[in-house]
Structures are given as structure tokens and as C-alpha cells.
Design brief:
alpha/beta; 3-stranded parallel β-sheet; Rossmann fold
Length: 257
Amino acid sequence: GFGVGKTHLLAAMWHLMPGRSYYGTFIEYTALVGALGYRGAVDHLTGASFLAIDEFELDDPGDTMVMSRLLGELVASGTRLAATSNTPPAALGEGRFAAEDFLREITALADKFLTVRIDGEDYRRRDFEGHAVVVAPGKVLATLQSVGDATTLDDFGAVIAHLATIHPSRYVGLVEGLRGVGWSGVYQLHNQAEALRLVALVDRLYDARVAIVPSGVALDEVFDDTMLSGGYRKKYLRAVSRMIALTRLAGNPQEAL
């Protein structure tokens, strides 16, 4: 499940590990391969005692091939792994691409992990019911100003269009140093590529504890029913949970995420 403390446990494990260790999201590790090249990434990570991988998901064949090979080499050299995911290892890739064509790679990945299932209620939604917070169009700027000085206000459609021009691994640069973002005119998405880019941005906003101040459609309704019943359902639901928490953050900066 999501919102049950998997990332917290992974971070705690990483802090306890002796020697050189690394913590990052799945997309950050794939970005490392993109930046250093495959062999450069292997050389950089080899010798680490422990690798923590948050939000492990296989969304395309390229990631499957790269991560299967990379983790295989690191495990063979003595590196231990731990990862969080909303999908059991053996089911990675299901409903997202022709996973059966990459069964060998997926099985090889699954064999490197012992699965520990953590169920429970999404803690980000324990204390309230309903939608993400929506602000009236005329009050977005004033609400943003209450968050702090480092904020930005953009049209939601312009944000979605801009994300298409940047690799998701670089989204962290969009949110660096920000306290809050305002999105005017939020509307429901029907394009899966756009929706997945938004998910990646929300993850970076959540990691950086950046409040979202939106107007328009409530952000828990930004993904259409087709998306919420498809192969990326868990990914979208996690993003919804995080967006609800971030919209509440503007009114209560001390709220726990």
C-alpha cells in the first residue's frame, strides 16, 4: 500500500548501514546511468555496501534491461539492496508494456529481493475525508504569499506542456529552493504521457516538501477513470495521496508528510 511508511523504513535502514551506501529514487538511479553511461554508473556504485531504491517501478523495456543488468552486477560484487514499490517484484511491468517479453529480466530482478508486504491505511488521509484543497482563482496568489517568498504561480496547462520538454530526471531542478507552487486552471488529464510526467513532478515536490496551491479541478480528480483502472493505477493513487497532503501543507506548514 501507499502512505504506510515504506519510504520511512527504507530511509531508516539506509541510515543504519555501515560503510559507503546510497539512497535514491528509482528514477534517480536511471538518471545516473543516463548521465554517466552504463559503465560509469557501475564504476561509481561498485563497492557500496548498500543501495536503497525508493519507488521501484518498471515503466518501460529500457529501464527493465538497464536495471536488471546494473543490479545484477552490483549484487555479484557484494552490494546489498533494499527497495520500496507498490508492485510485487514478480509483477513489475504488468499492464505497462509487453512484460512477458522481458520475463527473464523481471524474474532476475525479483529473485534479488525478499518481499515484505506492508499494508495499512494511507496515513496522509487518516485525519480527514474528501478532496484536495482547491483555492478560488482570485485567492491563489495571496495563499501562495502566506507560504513564503520562494514560490511560483503558473497556468496548469503551461506546466504540463513544459514538463514534456524536460527529462523527468531533471524535474528536481524545477522545485529546488521552492516553498510553494501555484497552479491556476487545473483540469483533468486524459493523456497518459502527460499524467505520468505530472506524477514524476509530484514526487519531486513531495520529496522537497513544496506546498501546492491549485485552482480549478481538485487534484485528486486530475487523473481520469481510464488511468485509475489501468496498469499505472497504483502510481496515480500514490500521486493523489501526495497531492492531497501538499495542498493541505499551504494552510498548515508544520503538518507532517
